[in-house]
Amino acid sequence: MLELVGCGLSSLTMQDSELLSKWSKMRHLDLSRNSFGKDILRILGALPFLKFLSLHDNAMEGPLSNQGLCELKKLEELDLSYNHIEGILPPCLSNLTSLRLFDVSGNQFIGNHLSSLLGSLNSLEYIDLRHNRFEGLFSFSSFVNHSKLEVVAITSDNDKFEVETEYKDWLPMFQLKVFVLPNCNLNKRSGDFPKFLLHQNTLSFIDLSHNNLEGSFPNWLLVNNTKLEYLSLRNNSFVGEFHLSPYYNSYTCWMDVSDNQLIGHIQLNMGEMVPYLIHINLSRNAFGGSIPSSIGKMRILEVLDLSSNNLSGEVPKQLVRNCRSLRSLALSNNKFHGQTFSDDFKLTQIEYLRLNDNQFTGPLTNVVFNLSKLSMLDISNNNMSGKILDSMNNMIRLRTLIMRNNAFNDQFPCALIPNVFMDISHNSFSGTLTSCSNPNLGVLEHVHLQGNHFTKFIPEALINLSKLVTLDVSDNNLSGRIPLSIRLLANLSILILRGNQLGGSIPTQLCQLNKISLMDLSKNSFTGSIPSCLSNITFGAIGAADLAFAQTPLEFYSTRHIFYVYENVLLPHLDMVFEIGGPDGTYDKVDEVEFITKSRTNSYRAGSILNFMSGLDLSCNKLTGEIPFELGKLSNVRALNLSHNLLIGPIPKTFSNLTQIESLDLSYNNLSGNIPTDLINLNFLAVFIVAHNNLSGKILDRKAQFGTFEASSYEGNPFLCGPPLENNCTAIVDLPYSPTTASLNETKGKWYDIDQVAFSASFVRTYITFLFGFAAVLYINPYWRQRWFYLIEEGMWSSYYFVCNTVYKLLRFQPSV
């Protein structure tokens, strides 16, 4: 036996090769976690008696040749997992008839018909082919024996057994213990379940998740294999009911049949059928009815995921009282109701608790605050209400708190602040957060407070969060100015202050937030001009590279390994993944931001478009002055909204540099001049609104994106002409002077031509009206009449002395004394 694990070796020297030749009778060689290339296989061909060979996690690349490896005729265990091997498996591997363990997972193998390769390996017990590119090729129909064998499959139908007769060309001789083949799109052509498994009755570990399997759920698989401990059929297309036979092995500890199309009720006696389950995942199916109370008999259950079904009723007290080993409970996206957090809640070991998107009611009692190991709590989108008490000093491990869309009120207790993610939006919380001194404040990364009744200033406690990535305090009653210390939020990517009562000028300190991708200051009372330095912000240029909103796996359950012992050998890289959230093991409801673009409110979620969305919204304020031409430098911004302000001047020609812009709204201002012709080159522009300004001239040619904009995009500009407006540019002759209108009037006189008759008549009417009105006022009010006469008299005397003084100076040629 020779083990050189993790030694950093990349090749064998001549002396090493000579040494191996002297050890030709070696039976066990482990070279895993080194940097060997595939050339090592030629040298190892000199070990004909080798039974165990592991090259797991090396640097083997390219196709696998026949030389060396196929010469190991007595090899029983072969591990080539997690290299970079490509191409097909060498056909000569079928000569290794003693092979019991075959692991080539984590490579790039493709192609060859696996049945022709593995069918002759009659001693096979362990197959791991995951993370390759085998598709639709795992079938044994190519072996023709013409001895029509009767296959007996034991199924369960109302606890009655029936015999199914099927004729196959070939019956595999091996009996597998471990069969791992996820993500391979099995039986791509037919979608059928691998029929050869009908003959396997010693399986203890099977993973066929993320394939394209169809048909009725294979209940027979659970009955035929009485030693089955681990089963994952996640993310297939199985239909029908999920029913355990009384003859089913009750010692299974892992079961995942999520992401299928299973229907019916959960079996009433499931807790009695599988009392030793540690992990069960039935999520994302169509199960109905209620949770059976027998679940409470699973005393060692650690993970229970029933999310995204049609389950209803109340959560059984037996579950929250007796399953005290539970570390993860997911009941989200169902129709549960009632009060969950009652005195019966005894799940003191719980770490991840997801109850969101149900109809739960009642307050958040002290029961929750005694969960000292709780890391993630999601109770969003329910009907929970009441005041949250502040006696919760035990929740020191809380990382994620999501409570949005409930009816909680009064002040939010500072002690409940988590240390990574907080979303308490759309409740009725009031007061301020200015007095919070929770140490978790220093490490918060995402804060959502929108849609509450928070008042006064933006809390300084939030501005001091150096790791903050998202700050959304929109739709509250905050007032005052934006703190100048906001420049300290160097990692901030999302700043949403929309819908408050903030005022003053927009501070230039915002320009120092170089990682901003979304900034929304709309619906406030900001005054002054738009800071030209906003052009210094990248607005998404580094957002995609940094992936600030990339989802991170949950701490414990996303990568927990199941150590499997095969022939007294521990295989630590054989694992089953606790996929609590999305199919990649992440929690898919972490960060979500609402941003108005393209004239509608859109929600951007983490892990997808949020990484690539960028926008600036300054609409519905009292901003004045011209639009800074420097904003044309925001070449990565996708949405720009400056509407409903008091802006003047022209549309900057530099806006033609906004090459990624999709939505541009400049409506309801006092902008003037022409629409820059270069804007026609903005190929991604889907929404363009300049309505209700003082723009003039001809609208841009209706080609490219501008051919899709309707008249509503330009309405309220009386001096704009051309399609899609009804104003004809050739008929506009009486416009106020501008370079554009002057050229339009050249054919019918100068712009300053006046109708003398109309002018004289209007002048006389105005003069007579003013004279009679003034006389009427003096006649009615004697005091004003007296004051008018005094004014006339004083004016006369002033004029008299002025004339006299001027004449005297002219005659005397000297100034008067």
TrEMBL record:
Matches recorded under Gene3D superfamilies: Ribonuclease Inhibitor
- Which superkingdom heads the taxonomic lineage of this protein's source? Eukaryota
Cite the Pfam families for this sequence. LRR_1, LRR_8
Q: Which GO terms describe its biological process?
A: defense response; response to other organism
Assigned keywords, A-Z: Cell membrane, Glycoprotein, Leucine-rich repeat, Membrane, Repeat, Signal, Transmembrane, Transmembrane helix
Family in the record: Belongs to the RLP family.
Its protein name is: Uncharacterized protein
